[in-house]
Write a structure and sequence with these properties.
It comes from Natrinema versiforme JCM 10478. One of its GO terms (biological process) is cell division. With 360 residues, the chain is α/β, with parallel strands linked by helices. The chain is built from twelve helices and ten strands. A ten-stranded mixed β-sheet has the order 3-2-1-4-5-6-7-10-8-9, sandwiched between helices. Helix 7 links the parallel strand 5 and strand 6. Helix 1 packs across helix 6, helix 6 packs parallel to helix 7 and helix 10 packs parallel to helix 11.
Length: 360
């Protein structure tokens, strides 16, 4: 799947650089262009692998907007034309989708990303997706409130929003800085493999995934989640049926970017590894299991040929807003805005809740 990446804010820029570097190091050729946009000049100077664009210089003099995502919205709206001009040549005719990447808890990313998605939708015919990083439970009330408003606005503007929970992919006992570094590396590998799954470079699988299957899975809109797991493979494919089932279960039940997200409107299962080691029976068995587990009849599946001694499973969920994690997060965001909570059984309604205003 050929994509163009635009990182907004500090976290968005860091993740975008990791994604672009991973794609280049692996030789996949999925990333067509990458741009990092920020109001903090120092954060842009630390990026070496992507092009950069400073915004809001007349408002904040390159010092960033702090955690003020309303100001982040304003500076992106003010400088949107120069950002769009910077995309010339980075969103190519080969790009099959655009991903706007942002941390949803800070200022520039959470405020600016929805504005950028809105304008990209008006210009480009390809899908415009958001890749949003949710703040962890302990990152403070302001970050929760920022992310709640940003997420609500993104869900309105983007074709789908792939969420990464900061609590999902870090290691126990890590420092805050170390945890962010680990999460960024895991995002780069998992999302990078998803992008590359339609750009196979090693051998030919029996049923290779292509970009249309990723796009069709995300067509459900709303919240998307991504799971991943890997195990050592046997050289005999018949011995890998159990391994295929194991990594598929782990990817959904313990390796997802959004903990507890198992129900979805659509899903895609990608089994990556040496084509001779991938068992056809195992892939089909895992796909049927995924249908039962997600409650979706729209479960696609296929191979991603890789020169590796391991078998990996990628599970992409579309329309996954029924996750308990989303419910708990939106509750915390409302509490952070000091608004009265009322219990709702409509899982879609919580993402359009009037008690969290849209950013614009």
């Amino acid at each position: 799947m050929k994509v163009s990446l635009i990182g907004v804010g500090q976290a968005g820029g860091n993740v975008t650089e990791r994604l672009a570097r991973f794609d280049a190091d692996m030789g996949f050729g999925a990333v067509q262009g990458a741009l990092a946009v920020n109001s903090a000049e120092a954060d842009l100077q630390s990026l070496q692998f992507v092009d950069t664009q400073l915004i809001g210089a007349d408002r904040v003099n390159g010092h960033g907007v702090g955690a003020d995502n309303e100001l982040g919205t304003e500076v992106m709206q003010s400088d949107i034309q120069q950002v769009l001009n910077s995309l010339d040549g980075r969103v190519s005719s080969k790009s099959e989708a655009i991903f706007v990447v942002a941390g949803l808890g800070g200022g520039t990313g959470s405020g600016g990303a929805p504005v950028l998605v809105h304008h990209l939708q008006q210009i480009y015919d390809v899908p415009v997706y958001a890749l949003g990083v949710l703040p962890g439970r302990n990152e403070g009330a302001l970050y929760q409130a920022n992310a709640g408003r940003s997420l609500k606005t993104l869900l309105r503007e983007a074709d789908s929003t792939l969420l990464i929970d900061n609590d999902s992919w870090h290691e126990q006992g890590e420092s805050v800085e170390g945890a962010f570094d680990t999460i960024n590396e895991k995002i780069a590998k998992r999302v990078g493999l998803l992008f590359a799954s339609g750009e196979a470079v090693e051998g030919v699988g029996e049923s290779v995934v292509d970009s249309s299957e990723v796009i069709n899975t995300l067509r459900a809109g709303g919240v998307a989640a991504l799971g991943y797991a890997t195990e050592i493979a046997s050289e005999d494919s018949s011995e890998n049926i159990t391994t295929t089932m194991t990594v598929s279960r782990q990817a959904l039940l313990t390796g997802t970017s959004l903990p507890d997200a198992t129900e979805a409107d659509s899903a895609l299962l990608v089994i990556a590894g040496d084509p001779d080691a991938i068992p056809r029976k195992g892939v089909e068995k895992a796909r049927h299991w995924l249908e039962d587990e997600t409650g979706s009849m729209q479960v696609r599946g296929g191979d991603f040929p890789l020169d590796s001694d391991r078998l990996g499973a990628l599970v992409l969920l579309g329309g996954a807003e029924r996750s308990d994690r989303i419910q708990r997060f939106m509750d915390r965001a409302r509490e952070a805005k000091k608004e009265q909570e009322t219990e709702s059984t409509d899982h879609a309604e919580q993402l359009t809740d009037d008690r969290l205003e849209n950013l614009f």
